[in-house]
């Protein structure tokens, strides 16, 4: 057994499972803040009742997210001690800032939202909702700073065989952090909105709490539509940044084995490592050069621009990138259908859209996973781009058998946590929200 490979599998397992929850809670937090704001603006108690229901679901996801995020912190010391020793002085700074400036802020004000509903004023609750949304977004910022630094390291010097932080501002605003943060937060808003849309659709399908479901669905649908549309220019800007700073990663995204002038955009195909080409490629001539450089004849670097030992796994990077883009297209189409039905006033009657919305709850989460995988796999073989290889970063003294046992144990625990999350969400949905004005009891069919 290979300790390095098993350590990568373990980190991928923990990070991938944990990554379900932050996007959901970030997106949901801002929607909760919207409903709190609408209450203060209109004085309509319905908005307050809506916010209380979604706060319950937020709290459940937040707790599971915290529980699944803790093992990731420990892995840097247990499974990746060589990495921690080499770059820990730099990488550890944003992680520490995330806990000090974000986690405690979010946790404190979430306690006010959950336990102080009848003990503090409505304005204090509104402020608490704002701080929870801001804290969750700020938390994501610090994590993205750390991850972006691994992609485009800056603000450090190698002294006595270790990376030491010399310019905090340069490390904080490393070259890729802006595009990546915008991309991830927009995706998080989409994730929270789809989550709200799906659960609202379930109430519609059951003909329960229709006033609640309609208000929730309408707000979530508008957010989902706007953020899904925004991902087109945001994703493009991110791809341009990757082309400039990590051209080999872009080559893996696009399956470009050879450096090409006037490079086509590959829509789909099957990468062949042996033949160094994309089999059955469906391409748009010169479009990649146009999109990246605005010039149909510009040269786009291929995988042949670096030695084979410095090339990422092409097939995984290629397919996960297309998985993200394909699901993004589906979400945009579904939102367009929803906006059309809402404009016609038939949103509550369309069972087809409601079923699609319900079954699409996992779609943005899966797109997030694909995007994360393509970004991280596309960076290989580097754990820190151009500075440290992944096969140099794992803990040499930890036996492979122990890593394998921990993978099995973590898998069992995470499976239990997932079942627990689904159970509590189901219980909250079955109990339903408080009845809105003029609405029958939430537990009665309409």
Question: Care to describe what's here?
Answer:
The N and C termini lie far apart (59 Å). The protein is built from 14 helices and eight strands. The protein is globular, with a radius of gyration of 23 Å. Helix 7 packs across helix 12 and helix 7 runs antiparallel to helix 13. The strands form four sheets. It has a two-stranded antiparallel sheet with strand order 1-2. A two-stranded antiparallel ribbon has the order 3-6. 70% of the residues lie in helices and 7% in strands. By secondary structure, the chain is mostly helical. 44% of the residues are buried.
How would you characterize the largest beta sheet?
2 strands, antiparallel
Assembly level: single chain
Whole-number mean pLDDT: 90
Low-confidence stretches: 442-446
Helix fraction, binned, reads 55-70%
Distance between the termini: 59 Å
Strand order of the largest sheet: 1-2
Could you state the order of secondary-structure elements as H and E? HHHHHEEHHHHEEEHEHHHEEH
What's the number of helices? 14
Give a count of the beta strands, DSSP E runs of length 2 or more: 8
Q: Radius of gyration, rounded?
A: 23 Å
Shape: globular
Strand percentage:
5-15%
- Summing up helix and strand content along with how strands pair, one would put the structural category as mainly alpha
Briefly say what this structure is:
By secondary structure, the protein is mostly helical.
List the helices and strands and how they pair.
Elements: H1 3-18, H2 21-42, H3 45-78, H4 81-115, H5 122-151, E1 156-159, E2 162-165, H6 168-172, H7 177-205, H8 210-245, H9 247-254, E3 260-261, E4 265-272, E5 277-284, H10 287-293, E6 299-300, H11 314-344, H12 351-359, H13 362-377, E7 382-384, E8 388-389, H14 400-431
Antiparallel strand pairs: 1-2, 3-6, 4-5, 7-8
Helix pairs in contact: 1-3, 1-14, 2-3, 2-5, 2-7, 3-4, 3-14, 4-5, 5-7, 7-8, 7-12, 7-13, 8-9, 8-11, 9-11, 11-13
């Amino acid at each position: 057994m290979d300790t390095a490979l098993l350590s990568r599998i373990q980190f991928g397992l923990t990070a991938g499972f944990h990554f379900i929850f932050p996007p959901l809670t970030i997106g949901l937090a801002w929607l909760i803040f919207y409903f709190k704001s609408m209450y203060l603006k209109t004085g309509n108690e319905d908005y307050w009742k809506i916010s209380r229901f979604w706060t319950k679901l937020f709290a459940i996801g937040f707790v599971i997210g915290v529980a699944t995020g803790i093992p990731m912190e420990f892995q840097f010391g247990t499974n990746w001690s060589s990495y921690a020793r080499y770059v820990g002085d730099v990488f550890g700074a944003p992680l520490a800032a995330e806990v000090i400036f974000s986690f405690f802020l979010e946790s404190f004000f979430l306690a006010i939202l959950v336990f102080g509903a009848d003990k503090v004023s409505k304005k204090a609750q509104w402020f608490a909702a704002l701080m929870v949304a801001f804290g969750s977004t700020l938390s994501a910022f610090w994590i993205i700073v750390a991850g972006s630094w691994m992609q485009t390291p800056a603000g450090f010097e190698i002294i006595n065989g270790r990376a030491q932080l010399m310019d905090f501002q340069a490390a904080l605003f490393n070259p890729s952090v802006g595009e990546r943060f915008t991309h991830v937060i927009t995706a998080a808003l989409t994730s929270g909105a789809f989550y709200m849309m799906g659960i609202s659709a379930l109430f519609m399908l059951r003909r329960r709490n229709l006033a609640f479901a309609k208000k929730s669905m309408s707000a979530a649908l508008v957010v989902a539509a706007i953020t899904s549309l925004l991902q087109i220019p945001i994703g493009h800007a991110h791809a341009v940044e990757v082309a400039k700073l990590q051209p080999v990663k872009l080559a893996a995204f696009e399956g470009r084995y050879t450096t090409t002038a006037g490079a086509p955009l590959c829509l789909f195909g099957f990468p062949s490592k042996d033949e160094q080409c994309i089999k059955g490629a469906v391409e748009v001539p010169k479009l990649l050069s146009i999109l990246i450089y605005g010039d149909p004849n510009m040269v786009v670097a291929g995988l042949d621009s670096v030695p084979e030992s410095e090339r990422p796994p092409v097939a995984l990077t290629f397919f996960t990138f297309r998985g993200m883009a394909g699901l993004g297209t589906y979400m945009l189409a579904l939102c367009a259908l929803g906006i059309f039905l809402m404009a016609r006033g038939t949103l509550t009657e369309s069972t087809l859209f409601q079923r699609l919305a319900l079954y699409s709850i996992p779609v943005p989460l899966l797109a997030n996973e694909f995007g994360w995988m393509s970004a991280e796999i596309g960076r290989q073989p580097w754990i820190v781009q151009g500075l440290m290889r992944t096969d140099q970063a794992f803990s040499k003294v930890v036996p492979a058998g122990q890593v394998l046992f921990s993978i099995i144990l973590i898998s069992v625990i995470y499976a239990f946590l997932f079942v627990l999350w689904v159970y509590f969400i189901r219980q909250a949905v079955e109990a339903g929200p408080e009845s809105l004005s003029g609405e029958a009891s939430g537990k009665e069919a309409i």
